[in-house]
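Hey everyone, long-time lurker, first post.

I ran two proteins through the pipeline my lab uses and got sequence/structure pairs for each. Pasting them in order. The first:
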Amino acid sequence: MSLTRLQRGVALITALLVMAIATTLAVTMSVRQNDAILRTATLQLRDQGRELALGGVAFARMVLEQDDRTVDGPADSWAQTLPPMPIDGGTIRGRIIDMQGRFNLNNLVNNDGTVNPIAYARFARLLANLNLNPAILDEVVDWIDPDRDVSPRGAEDEAYTGLNPPYRTANRPMVSVSELRQIRSVDEAAYRALAPLVAALPS
């Protein structure tokens, strides 16, 4: 009698164990399948975004090739915002922005590493007109120039290596305006004020 109960107990435990293993395997397979589906969807969206971006560049080239190059203004066809166009899953729109019409931060330092006095004076006026900290000027110069000499109101590595996380000055021309976020005196408000007015183009 007790042997039969024991056998039944062992059979029940075995059945529960098999069910638990089967459930675990099913859940694992389901999770992996969901991950694979999400990965595929992400790759498709990335490829779609890339193709849309390439199409935008091709369209911009076409518009610029047809432009009258003797004069530029807000009435030009390239300066008009492209109205929203429907695509699968949403809409897309775009516009061409003349970055040459902005102050080029990389012009602050000449190719030989010296400060460009004309660009320096212009950026100083821009900061004054925006009521921003004038120290930003020398800090940007120190960020771009190749030396490690600190300008009068500037900041080199010593000002940044003590931060958390620490980093160093680039000591090269800016690649993106977003590098302004790394400058010591540029807070979020200063960045928002400067970003639409400056560029980071080759000097």
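...and the second, right after it:
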Amino acid sequence: FVGEAATINESTMSFEQVSLVAKKMAVLTTISSELNEDAFISIADEVSGEIAYAFAKREDECLFLGDGSSTYGGITGLADSMGSAGISQTTELAATGLAGLTSLGIFTDLMALLPQYADTRNCKWYMHKSVYHGTVESIVREAGGNTFRDQLDGKWTPNLLGYPVVFSQVLPDINSDTDNQKIAYFGDMTLAASFGDRRSTQIQVSDQAMDVFQQDEIAVRGTERFDIVCHDCGDGNDAGPIVALTIDNDGS
């Protein structure tokens, strides 16, 4: 508060500095020229698509599972960056896997941990596809209320408790030994982590590299340079802008 005609003290907004250092991923493979000529589909295009998919999968692994080792390019992901205040643990299940889940209570408990500032339009759920369809949908279906048209159409945007769901196949699936694993995340990922790429996925083809000219082959090389930094994931006292759900299957 300030008095009438009094001087207002100036305040300065502060910013956190996040440094992204591009890490290089690469794939190199060869295909025979005969296969490339005779195949019904373009093998080079097919290989390029697989390389791009492999890169995308490794990005997800770095984000969610990265432990700072060379396997993940030195990237530490959410699993190892989360503060304990932002982790909700339940002992609802007595066995491994999620087949015994009977209510959405563990998900609402997780939502309760998320700070208000992180409840933005970018707020989403992140989980394995099988967890959503095999547990969440099963619970909601048991609650009833489906119409004939709902059952026939069967297509809608995945949502849970009013928030969109993003699938990541690197997270534990419905049959995994989920004990103490982070099976789902909730929050605004844009506030918790930063992704940057210096070189997006590039595919190059050569018939003269290495020994492919002598062997009449075609070399296909894919490269990408990117980095992920999880910079705001909470600590032991305060939850960050993204929170995680774990399950203690043995109740200990």
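Reply from user beta_strand_b:
Welcome! Quick read of the second one: The first strand starts at residue 23 and ends at 32. The chain is about 30% helix and 25% strand.
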